[in-house]
Specification:
transcription (chains A, B), 2 domains, HTH_TetR (chains A, B), HTH-type_TetR-like_transc_reg (chains A, B), homodimer, Tet_transcr_reg_TetR-rel_C_sf (chains A, B), mainly alpha, Tetracycline Repressor, domain 2, DNA-binding
Chain lengths: 220, 220
DNA sequence: AGCAGAACGGAAGACTATGTTCCACAGCTA
DNA sequence: TAGCTGTGGAACATAGTCTTCCGTTCTGCT
């Protein structure tokens, strides 16, 4: 049985019938299912993805050489979303703070972090993936630093602090996805208010280093 | 052959020799190793604990009927620490805000959350454990509400928000334990500053409910 | 000195979970 | 109708892990 794919971006409304069309739809259904399953549990078995998608195992293996391939695809997609959001934020020339805040809200909303950092370590990373990650990090740093240089950010903070905030929010898991997103937005709002306290003293302790945050791409 | 136990805090400088003494020391070593291992990875194999403790598997099974027993012990200890800290905070009659802030700092410092919520779900909970958890939750609520009633907390927040903050901080994992603790203190400080903004508007979205936070004792 | 038994190390056993392959089959297409 | 693409799902292989078990070491007491 073929699912009516919920969510997901439609590309071209291909003919409703035909085997090719059904297969194409399964492409989407499978990706969406994989995203949902692995975001909820990065160590989930591949059979859980098939179940959630309402397809058999072979439908997965026809599309991906193995589990790692699927994981890499999801991770790469997440990274691309991250990059796109960062570029969008950088193109906002008006308010550096709002650009940063909006960027963070969109990243959290898209649950990009669960797709990148949380998945890293469950597969052997690719050269290509490494480049994308580096690019993503660089862009995010620019978004952050621009807000810093505009004097809109509490002193003592750096880009790695931002990454850690993403980490923390991605660890929040409630009943369903929508409720989780609500709560994450709520707590992100709290954090943003803390980051905006430009006249507050720097937070205690030595700040996180880029290396400490990057290391996780190989660890676990 | 018996290992020369490395590290481990000595309680009473009992006779340096004697088999009984070594066994008693192993009690400590094993518990400490289990804490460290399961805090780093709640799904770690029991052999990892033995390795870290520098003892054989049988040293564990002599003390605990099985893996779950050990997990329950750790969880119960964590809960008791939590309760003790909450009671200490309640006995501070001077500054409700500082009592709350200090409570949260100590809970995060002791990494209690990794011992309770993060471990829950890896074993079948006990009746006793449920009571302890309920008591812990009740006390924490009192600590929080006292600060609220003193007008020291930003409007719109509740005890479950505090639990979620613990969740988020417990998800932070860096190189070693000390560094992790540093960073957690840092980000807790940020969050506390956000909670202290009494004249800021309530954070967006419907607040978390106690049920949403409690549910995790049975889930997974 | 010598023995009983506590405490232990670690291999072997028993299972479970999971990634991957394989094959028979359905439905479109020509 | 023949053939090919896409599929379902059982079967297989394997790695990981909990638990048991047995031989060994060392202590404490007689």
């Amino acid at each position: 049985m073929f699912h009516s794919y919920s969510g997901g971006m439609e590309t071209t409304p291909a003919p409703m019938s035909g085997r090719k069309a059904q297969a194409a739809r399964n492409d989407q259904v499978i990706l969406e299912a994989a995203r949902a399953v692995f975001v909820a549990d990065p160590d989930a078995p591949i059979s859980a993805v098939a179940e959630r998608a309402g397809v058999g195992i072979s439908a997965l293996y026809r599309r991906y050489a193995g589990k790692e391939d699927l994981l890499r695809k999801l991770c790469s997609d997440g990274l691309r979303t991250y990059i796109a959001e960062a570029e969008a934020a950088l193109s906002d020339q008006d308010d550096p703070w709002e650009a940063l805040a909006g960027f963070m809200r969109r990243v959290v909303d898209a649950d990009v972090h669960s797709l990148t950092i949380n998945l890293a370590g469950t597969f052997t990373p690719t050269e290509e993936l490494g480049r994308e990650a580096a690019r993503a990090g660089g862009l995010a740093e620019q978004v952050f630093d621009r807000a810093v240089q505009a004097g809109a950010v509490r002193p003592g903070l750096n880009t790695s602090d931002m990454s850690l905030i993403f980490d923390q929010l991605a660890a929040l898991h409630l009943g369903d996805e929508e409720r989780t997103a609500q709560i994450r937005r709520r707590h992100l709002a709290l954090m943003l208010d803390a980051l905006r306290l430009t006249s507050a003293p720097p937070p205690p302790g030595p700040p996180p280093t880029a290396e400490e945050v990057t290391r996780r791409w190989t660890a676990r």
